[in-house]
Design brief:
This protein is mainly α. It has seven helices and no strands. It starts with a helix and ends with a helix.
Length: 168
């Protein structure tokens, strides 16, 4: 219950903050309550004989770094999926089917990079592969921030291809 409440409140706060203001009393109070819920969750889990999440795992820097990388990748994915669909439908005027077809490059590249990434991780190491994925995410967001309603589809498709390794 504590973890669900913390995540739910955090998501609610992030969604509402642009309208209410990031520095508004309500937004700041929600962040404080979220932090308190996380602290309560940690305290609860430490007292349990069989915790839902063994917090001792986070003492391992590799586990913590990998967990952070996965979280960043999923936030990046979530930050693209809905606005990406809306961009194609509302700004470009594509139908839902046309939008789905135009997202095929990223889906195809994710499938390819899933196989390639696993092989590369064995050859050159997980750190290098994860680092490259996070760099690809950064490059994608820097590039996609320049997109406008008149950006050509070819450019958008290339942007999606840049993001694909992070999802794989």
């Amino acid at each position: 219950m504590l973890s669900a409440a913390a995540v739910g409140l955090l998501i609610y706060t992030i969604i509402e903050a642009p309208e209410r203001g990031w520095g508004s009393a309500t937004t700041l109070a929600c962040f404080v309550v979220t932090a308190a819920l996380v602290a309560a969750f940690v305290a609860w889990e430490r007292r349990r004989a069989e915790p839902m999440l063994d917090l001792a795992l986070f003492a391992d820097r590799r586990f913590t770094a990998a967990s952070a990388a996965v979280a960043i990748s999923f936030f990046a994915l979530s930050g693209f999926i809905l606005p990406g669909h809306q961009y194609f439908q509302f700004f470009k005027g594509y139908s839902p089917l046309s939008t789905g077809v135009r997202l095929l490059p990223v889906a195809t590249c994710v499938a390819v990079f899933s196989v390639v990434g696993a092989r590369l991780a064995v050859r050159i190491g997980t750190k290098a592969v994860v680092g490259a994925g996070l760099l690809a995410t950064t490059a994608f967001y820097l590039w996609v921030a320049t997109a406008t309603a008149t950006t050509a589809y070819g450019t958008i498709a290339l942007q999606m291809v840049v993001l694909a390794p992070a999802w794989a």
